[in-house]
Specification:
mainly alpha; 3-stranded antiparallel beta sheet; elongated; two-stranded antiparallel ribbon; about 725 residues
Length: about 725
């Protein structure tokens, strides 16, 4: 092969499939195939740290005071390559922390600052995150110094806290404990749009009705954290913007009071940037050439830093003293009239009419120059929306209340996705239990576990009901924001006790049998519910010929109604549960895709999903007792029959009315069983079929039982952060 041959297209001696080239992949060829990547997006192979690495152990050696001192010094250590506004990086670091945390949405718990995902695409290249690559690079010397004793995820949020403290604000507290991911969360759904900042009409049934925004999304346009600062679709109208602000903040679990506090507190310091030509900016980090070294939006044509920085396109500070915590935001917003103007970059912004010279902030580089402050359309909503206005005036007249409200709202914003306080770590963890942390009291551990199991067995409750009740209690867990799970026994409280997916009548029957056992034994009901499921699994295993003991750790507590924000638990209600072959109604998304979503939220792998599915079917746990997918003549036994009969070529599979299927004997054409799409995907999808065939093998019966017990225990203990 000569040089000409090497340069010929198609004859390059590099395996093109070894890297991402933008060429067609499997899902492009077969877009309707079930993509299991969401279950393995953080495969162990992407993590460069040793398997035994323990971040919490590393944190114990962290000198928190020294770290905070270094961060405080950084705030005023202006760099020539990216100079600090007014010599202070506080505003930039707060925006970085805010935008890391602010991608959280309540509907599925995804997003947020808990994983350091802002380092990776798409978040590192979102239009709303323009120039936050600079804040992360400014932090690099500190990350380099402290190494694995501090995660990027913790450092991002802590930098925001220290920024506020360095400007005179007293924060509510801080928790370490966020662990970094090492690969983009590419399967998180951020919207269907194919272009940045596409009109928000694309994600609303009716853009005039903010409540019609597509779930689980919270931001109004692709590439934004919240709302468009120039107005709905870039058209200024503060009252319309107020509606979008209210909806998007509600989808982040914030009420009007918290929304005003966060908006004002976030805009009390720092500035927006639009004093330059956006056309001169280079591509975002993911699209930039190698010589940019991971930085994006660089201006190589003219001066693009300092007073000439372009980020949002809006230009100016919100307050007179943008590096000082004060009540200046409300002073300017409420005491001046504001008119619509254009920034130097051409963006819509609001500026005051006849403002006093002393109320103008100074230029970021030349303190002898004073410039107009600005407000975005969202800021004007705080003045023009009647409810927001009431709260704004209240905060203006009661600055100490504003300080307290913002401190608590900022803490909630930056810690909402960390889950229960049991996961918190460090010297600044607040002692107060907050209802949004879903508090659960510690449960007893000194009761007779064997005696409780015997009492459960004596109730005579069927295996399917024991297992289904424990499953329903535990399946609410979301690894996205560490909410839900069996701890707390909230399945007995509103709203969960009445969820359709929990079969309220059956649930109340089982609880009625289990509650006296908990009362008599001294165990929590949460523990008894899980033990009941374990008893059912052990009985099913014995029926299949295997004597196993399901691992169990006591200590779950029982939450009370006072500890439960019932409204916030509505989002945990399952709309489908493939494991119990239930679908609340038909959705645009297929049942098997809904199964993957729930599986990923519970932190399960594809093999774990497969073994749990097969076991749940043969134990008779289907919602409403339907026979779909129960491919066995011995229901209640933890056998491999689901896989054996699914893969048996003596059978055929035929669609019937109602979106279900029949499994028929190939010779007699006699119907043997019925199935749903969720059942049959384990035989049709090539990857899932490989797992199914493994468990259908004659030598896999014991492996199946042990693998099921392992996966079952993982689900039952997913929320046991107290065991870490």
């Amino acid at each position: 092969m000569d040089g000409n041959d090497i340069e010929t297209k198609g004859k390059c001696p590099v395996m093109h499939g070894a890297i991402t080239t933008g060429e067609t992949d499997v899902m492009d060829w077969w877009p309707n195939a079930l993509n299991l990547d969401i279950l393995h997006q953080h495969d162990r192979k992407t993590d460069p740290l040793a398997p035994e690495f323990d971040y919490r152990e590393e944190l114990k050696a962290l000198d928190v005071e020294a770290l905070k001192a270094d961060l405080t010094a950084l705030m005023t250590d202006s760099q020539d390559w990216w100079p600090a506004d007014w010599g202070h990086y506080g505003g930039l670091m707060i925006r970085m922390a805010w935008h890391a945390a602010g991608s959280y949405r309540l509907a599925d718990g995804r997003g947020g600052g808990g994983t350091g995902n802002q380092r990776f695409a798409p978040l590192n290249s979102w239009p709303d995150n323009t120039n936050l690559d600079k804040s992360r690079r400014l932090l690099w010397p500190i990350k380099k110094k402290y190494g694995n004793k501090i995660s990027w995820a913790d450092l991002f949020i802590l930098a925001g806290n220290v920024a506020y403290e360095s400007m005179g604000f007293k924060t509510f507290g801080f928790s370490f404990g966020r662990e970094d991911i090492w690969h983009p969360e590419k399967d998180t759904y951020w919207g269907a749009e194919k272009e940045w900042l596409a009109p928000s009409d694309n994600r609303y049934d009716d853009v005039e009705n903010p409540a019609t925004m597509e779930n689980p999304l919270a931001a109004v346009q692709m590439g934004l954290i919240y709302v468009n600062p120039e107005g709905v679709n870039g058209n200024p109208d503060p009252l319309k913007t107020a509606g979008q602000v209210r909806e998007t903040f509600a989808r982040m679990a914030m009420d009007d009071y918290e929304t005003v506090a966060l908006t004002a507190g976030g805009h009390t310091v720092g500035k927006t940037h639009g004093n330059g030509d956006a056309e001169e900016l280079g591509p975002e980090p993911e699209a930039a050439d190698v010589f940019e070294q991971g930085l994006g939006w660089n201006n190589h044509k003219s001066r693009g830093v300092g007073r000439n920085t372009v980020t949002s396109g809006i230009e100016g500070a919100w307050t007179t003293h943008p590096t000082k915590w004060d009540n200046g935001y409300f002073h300017l917003l409420l005491n001046y009239d504001w008119e619509l103007r254009k920034s130097p970059a051409g963006a819509n912004q609001w500026e005051p009419v006849d403002i006093k010279e002393e109320d103008k902030p100074v230029d970021v580089e030349d303190p002898s120059i004073r410039l107009n402050p600005i407000m975005t359309d969202a800021d004007m909503a705080m003045k023009m929306d009647p409810e927001y206005r009431k709260i704004s005036e209240r905060f203006y007249n009661n600055p100490e209340e504003f300080d307290e409200a913002f401190a608590r709202a900022w803490f909630k914003l930056t810690h909402r996705d960390m889950g229960p306080k049991a996961r918190y770590f460090g010297p600044e963890v607040p002692q107060e239990d907050l209802i949004w942390q879903d508090p659960v009291p510690a449960g007893p551990t000194n009761y007779d576990i064997g005696g409780v199991k015997r009492q459960i067995a004596e109730t005579g409750l069927p295996v399917g009901e024991l297992v289904a009740t424990a499953w329903d209690s535990a399946r609410t867990f979301r690894g996205s924001d560490m909410r839900g799970g069996a701890n707390g026994a909230r399945i007995r409280l509103a709203p969960q006790i009445d969820w359709e997916g929990n079969e309220p009548a059956r649930l109340r029957k089982v609880l009625k049998a289990l509650e006296p056992i908990a009362a008599q034994s001294g165990a929590s009901l949460a523990d008894v519910i899980v033990l009941a499921g374990n008893v059912g699994v052990e009985q099913a295993a014995r029926a299949a010929g295997f004597d196993v003991i399901v691992p169990f750790n006591p200590g779950r507590g029982d939450a009370t109604e006072e500890m439960t924000d019932a409204e916030s638990f509505d989002v945990l209600e399952p709309l489908a549960d493939g494991y119990r072959n239930w679908l609340k109604k038909d959705y645009a998304v297929s049942p098997e895709e809904l199964l993957l979503d729930r599986t990923q939220l519970m932190g399960l792998t594809a093999p774990e999903m497969t073994v749990l599915m097969g076991g749940m079917r043969v134990m008779g746990t289907n919602h409403g007792g339907t026979g779909h997918g129960v491919f066995t003549d011995s229901p209640g036994a933890l056998s491999t029959d689901f896989f054996v009969n699914l893969t048996d070529m003596a059978n055929t599979w035929v669609p019937v009315e109602g979106g279900t299927y029949e499994i028929r004997d190939r010779k007699s054409d006699k119907a043997k069983w019925t199935a749903t799409r969720v059942d049959l995907v384990f035989g049709s999808n090539s990857v899932l079929r490989a797992y199914s065939e493994l468990y259908a093998q004659d030598d896999s019966r014991e492996k199946f039982v042990r693998d099921f017990v392992s996966a079952w225990t993982k689900v039952m203990e997913a929320d046991r952060f107290d065991l870490a």
